[in-house]
Amino acid sequence: MLPKKAKNRYSLTIATFETIIGLEVHAQMNTQTKMFCGCSNDAFGKEANTLVCPVCMGHPGTLPVINGKAVEKAIRASLALKCEIQKNNHMSRKNYFYPDLPTGYQISQYDFPLALKGTVQYEVNGEKKSCGLTRLHMENDAGKLMHRGDVSLVDYNRAGTPLMEIVTDPDLRSAEEASAFVQELRRILIAVDSSEADMFKGMMRFDASVSLRPVGDKKLYPRVEIKNLNSFKALEKAIAYEQKRLTKLWEKGEQPKSEVTVGWLDDEEKTVILREKESAADYRYFPEPDIPPLQFDDASLEKFRAAIELPQEKKNRYVSLGLNEAEAMLLIEQTELQSLFDAVYEKTNDAKRTSSLILTQLIGFLKAANKSIEEAPKKESILELITITDAGTISGNQSKQVLEKMIQTGKSAAEIVKEEGMEQISDTSALEAIVQKALEANTASVEAYKGGKQAALGAIVGWIMKETKGQANPAKVNELLKEQLG
């Protein structure tokens, strides 16, 4: 029985409440340089404060210049998310003071964002659902605070990184839906090469706004904003926690009267109140005076739209090559692996060979060496290995050995072949001498072959391969043997 305090029109069980969820997704764009300067955009793992310059540090007298590649990637993402590109849009200053924001303001977009009114189709337990998008706008990231006991340190390497902020409509109704939505969103951003969305590297983060209302009520009540969630699991747990906490308040008749911002403590699996939520007025937006408005024409937008391939389309293309769905999804969700696969397939035009090399051999050798796909040989090195193999310099079996050593040592295919003395013997005159020697040493197998036992030829080939330490060209050896044996 509910306590007396709960006796009001909202003294209901959890089944009579509806959870309203909206998300703000921050995705770093995978450009070579930062949003408004020429500093490297590859900050992960770098020594603190080594990728900075007067522009991204906000020194007086410096002027930002917008990164054209970042704008292109944001446009591609907007079109893939079925947004309406605003042909006239401009940057704004969002003013707030925080230690990791060196300028004291963020260059973002407010009144005139890049894109509006998108939608994402996603799936939960086999059921197709849709979530509307309010807007997609561009901005630059802040730096990173690192807390060491009572001391806080600031690394500004990330300051100025190009960001897309994607804001949803309040269309999500559960933690499970929110997680499924962001996973599909991540696939889309990766598929159109707008972001690597590597959550381990902090390239994709979420703010979740959660509120409750009685079922059937259309009003939106004050929300709780959960800041800086950096994994699908954290997103689900944080939303579920707030859902239960808010339900208890509603059941006691103590539903929130104002909006608050909370932080998620991953270790303790609970939220803590940080502050009352800011409004747009708190940020004192005004047009960025140093960057002119951006304008786009229909022809440019159509060019971008024609080049877009969505995750489902990509999956269908890979499946049509003979891959199974699990292999296709693996490529869609791992950009480095996808890049290697596409490069090898373009060179060989052989999906079966490409799948064997990338999805079987490469992944297998990486796992055995306890290495990640980021530590795999570069695309150029793998293509060099294919060239050497196809030229007959090494055999197919040797190619596997070379790939494994490439992963273990970091050396190129050519270096390993030279060091290991693996160059295949393809010279006809040299092979003829070896074949003659093999025939003399394997008279029993020669007679058996002449007697109709085709398998006997394999024994002679095996002797030659052993004698040459695997360097004889098997195809030429077989050809010469058959000529000699009639």
Q: How would you briefly describe this protein structure?
A:
The protein contains 16 helices and 16 strands. The protein has 486 residues and is of the alpha+beta class.
Can you describe this structure?
With 486 residues, the chain is of the alpha+beta class. It folds into three domains: 4-287, no CATH class; 309-420, no CATH class; 428-484, Arc Repressor Mutant, subunit A. Helix content is 40%, strand content 20%. It contains 16 helices and 16 strands. The chain has helices at 68-80, 175-191, 232-251, 280-283, 298-306, 311-320, 325-333, 335-348, 351-368, 379-390, 396-409, 413-420, 428-441, 443-450, 456-467, 474-484; strands at residues 17-28, 84-85, 88-89, 92-95, 105-108, 115-124, 127-140, 144-148, 151-155, 162-168, 204-214, 224-229, 260-265, 270-276, 286-287, 294-295. Strands 2-6-7-10-1-11-12-13-14 form a nine-stranded mixed β-sheet. The chain has a three-stranded antiparallel β-sheet with strand order 5-4-15, with no helix packed on it. Strands 3-16 form a two-stranded antiparallel ribbon. The chain starts with 16 loop residues before the first strand and ends with a helix. Mean pLDDT is 88; it is low at 1-14.
Sum up the structure in keywords.
16 strands; nine-stranded mixed β-sheet; 486 residues; alpha+beta; elongated; 16 helices; Arc Repressor Mutant, subunit A; disordered N terminus; 3 domains
Secondary structure tally, helices: 16
Q: Quaternary arrangement of the chains shown?
A: single chain
- Strand residue percentage: 15-25%
The residue-averaged pLDDT reads 88
Secondary-structure class: alpha+beta
**Which parts are unreliable, with pLDDT below 50 for 5 consecutive residues or more?**
1-14
For the secondary structure, the number of strands is 16
Spatial ordering of strands, largest sheet: 2-6-7-10-1-11-12-13-14
Total tally of structural domains: 3
Helix content: 25-40%
Supply Rg. 30 Å
Cα shape: elongated
Largest sheet: 9 strands, mixed
Q: How far apart are the termini?
A: 98 Å
